[in-house]
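From: lab user (bench 3)
To: helpdesk
Subject: output format question, protein + magnesium ion

Hello, I'm new to running complex predictions and I'm not sure whether the block I got back is the full result or only part of it. Here's what I submitted:
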Amino acid sequence: MNEVLLIKNGEIALKGLNRGSFEDVLMKNIRWRLKKLGKFEITKAQSTICVRPVGEADLEEAVEQVGKVFGIAAFSRALVTEKDLDAIKRDAAVYLKDALQKAKTFKVNAKRSDKTFPFKSPELQQELGGALLEAYPHLKVDVHHPEVTVTVEIRDTAAYLHGAQLPGAGGLPVGTSGEAMLLVSGGIDSPVAGYLMARRGMKLSAMHFVSPPYTSDRALAKVETLLEKVSGYAGDITFYCVPFTKIQEALRDHCPEELFTILMRRLMMKIAIRVAEREGVPALITGESLGQVASQTVLALAATNAAADRPVFRPLIGMDKSDIVQIARRIDTFETSILPYEDCCTVFTPKRPKTRPTLNQVEKAEASFDFEPLLEEAVAGIERKTIKMEQAAG
Ligand code: ATP
Ligand code: MG
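Helpdesk reply: Thanks, we reran it on our side. This is the complete output you should expect:
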């Protein structure tokens, strides 16, 4: 059976003159995603991308992987057949047998982009509809709410038949919206924040702060697992692991306890900004959500933000925890996120954090100690590696 995937891209259609380059990135991302599954031929014609397995390549697994590629609105598994009415009738009845037997109602939707095909779309719909009614006499036509829509597309090279459209992952192809550095903890929120920005087309790098011996190797391994899961959608992620112990100890020893968390966040920002600047990454991402904890009140966020001289994207800012958890479950990060290992944020947590710090207070407290040498040391001590895209993610 000669089956392919027909892919309709999502918002790419809105991109006017850039459309070609967006489609090229999408095709590259699909190719990359299917690399380990065997050989696939990927072509583009008439605003549809076609994925054709070559030899032994498994279309079933390709369906699963393509469903995770951002920039795809919907796709379908389609049978390739001849541009001949009898062949189309015969093949549709066989190829869509399961769906048509189960359904009570159906309709036929014909698209004729090859205008030399002798039947116009309405005629083709009538002809194929009639043939399917003959083959499955229990069926009725319902043009408004059919249980099954049989689509036949007459394209330049062949005719394509498909039954159901599968939902794509939506968004924009990763890499078409530039790059940002995700500040990633082992919590529930930041992996979801990274996923959401990748869905808007951003390539990700990620930074995590560790404070051994207060934080363990297992906590770091957990973060890497989370990033692997996010990379299943976002592609490879450059990962920076920052030694943060000395900075946290200095904070504990020299700064007012009530401002501890905010000062820590600002110092995290400062380090992230330095690396982002060095690596040419124009923006940061955090998993902050308004009002979730003391360090995420509007004044606390303003004080944190003032330490960053480039955009900080906070895609969860207006979301409830339950909404965030729902996404975390869907992308399979939730179970890992709730493993109980210490994060550097939970080390030396103040008993009464200030929820309404003014920037003035915060800057004064920060100036009471010279963090500069420690910041430099932390940046110099960064370990860098690549988190490879998880190919078999389910
Ligand atoms: P999360 O679930 O992402 O941990 P949270 O609600 O627990 O978020 P905080 O712990 O206050 O919130 O952290 C707020 C944000 O600061 C995180 O979403 C993340 O972007 C960043 N952050 C926190 N801890 C770290 C860390 N150890 N390394 C890097 N970034 C961190
Ligand atoms: Mg956290």
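A quick orientation on your result: The CA atoms of residues 89 and 127 lie 8 Å apart. Let us know if anything else is unclear.
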